[in-house]
Specification:
With 348 residues, the protein is of the alpha/beta class. It is 35% helix and 16% strand. The protein is globular, with a radius of gyration of 18 Å.
Length: 348
């Protein structure tokens, strides 16, 4: 499949990025359900009571409306996170809003939580109930909502029975005011609303934060995550920062930057949060991961799991399987028989 993607990529890159993305989702949705990885020796991880057969997950943003969840397991992911799903349908920001920065192996998006809404996603997720595979549901608030915290609570209530875990996305830079929910007081209120939403289920709550948070802000997140016994913290989403090294003509586009230029920042923020939480909260590392070496470095810096998305654009659909195979080799090279023993070893 790698050679086929390499052959097709020049044609794909001539397409509008958003149209290419939609075509990929449509093609995947037509495939039969894939069989989730049964587990690679030493690579299975248990986080928040959930067994992940391998640590490589698909980040939210690829399958926004849960259209191709089961087919995505064909690519070798240990988990698939659908969303971000909002209560009501919304169009998101005007197009164009997705840009490939090919020279930088990066992407900028300013989608703004475009979503078919909770009803459409819920119907699809109900149809897949009983199928295997770890499926996270990433939820958000509508842009025009008079009460965004209530939106998260309502979505948690609807999606908790259908999800392996619920992720609260408060880190998108493309919905005005959303990142204000990362403030310690607002975040406490948000978690309370979501706890009410998942009451009566065993579905754990995960929190997705931005890689642009300061050390002080990460300290606050760590305290709250420990106190409220969150299942995991995902760090992070796209960044508003722009490294001076960017070469693409699209480098000045507004929106969130992901891909290779985010790697160093995302790793630094992960390590800082791991130290702030003293390893008491499972962390999921996201941002710029495009190889087994990148994933291994993120695990050694404190990640129990990793997720990727933008790298698929440049590395192709076999990337998850290559990372899983490479992690097994790197783990053995460094003298580990169990991945859990390597988490945070470089920052303890």
């Amino acid at each position: 499949m790698d050679w086929l993607y390499r052959a097709a990529r020049p044609l794909v890159f001539r397409m509008d990025p958003e149209n290419a993305h939609k075509a990929a989702i449509r093609a995947l949705a037509m495939l039969p359900a894939g069989t989730p990885d049964a587990g690679t020796a030493g690579l299975a991880m248990t986080v928040a009571g959930i067994r992940f057969p391998n640590p490589v997950g698909l980040a939210a943003g690829f399958d926004k409306d849960a259209e191709a969840v089961d087919a995505l397991f064909r690519l070798g992911f240990g988990a698939v996170e659908a969303g971000t799903i909002t209560p009501l349908p919304q169009a998101g920001n005007p197009r164009p809003r997705l840009f490939r920065l090919a020279e930088d192996r990066a992407v900028i998006n300013r989608f703004g939580f475009n979503s078919q809404g909770g009803d459409a996603a819920e119907a699809r997720l109900r149809r897949r109930l009983g199928r295997p595979g770890v499926v996270g549901i990433n939820v958000g608030a509508n842009k025009e909502s008079p009460d965004r915290i209530a939106d998260y609570g309502a979505m948690a209530r609807r999606m908790a029975p259908l999800a392996s875990y619920i992720t609260l996305n408060i880190s998108s830079p493309n919905t005005p005011g959303l990142r204000a929910l990362q403030d310690e007081n607002a975040l406490a209120d948000l978690i309370s609303a979501v706890e009410e939403g998942v009451a009566g289920t065993t579905t754990p709550i995960f929190l997705k934060i931005a890689p642009d948070l300061s050390d002080r802000e990460l300290d606050a997140v760590a305290r709250l995550a420990i106190d409220r016994r969150l299942g995991a913290v995902l760090i992070g989403n796209t960044t508003l920062s722009r490294p001076a090294s960017l070469q693409s003509v699209h480098a000045a586009e507004t929106g969130g930057l992901s891909g290779a230029p985010l790697r160093a920042l995302a790793q630094d923020r992960l390590a800082t949060l791991y130290r702030a939480s003293a390893g008491q909260v499972p962390l999921i590392g996201i941002g710029g991961i495009a190889s087994a070496e990148h994933a291994w470095a993120r695990i050694r810096a404190g990640a129990s799991l990793i997720q990727l998305y933008s790298a698929l654009v440049y590395e192709g659909p076999m990337l998850p399987r290559r990372i899983v195979a490479g992690l097994a080799e790197l783990m053995r090279r460094d003298g580990f028989t169990d991945l859990a023993a390597a988490v945070g070893v470089d920052v303890r």
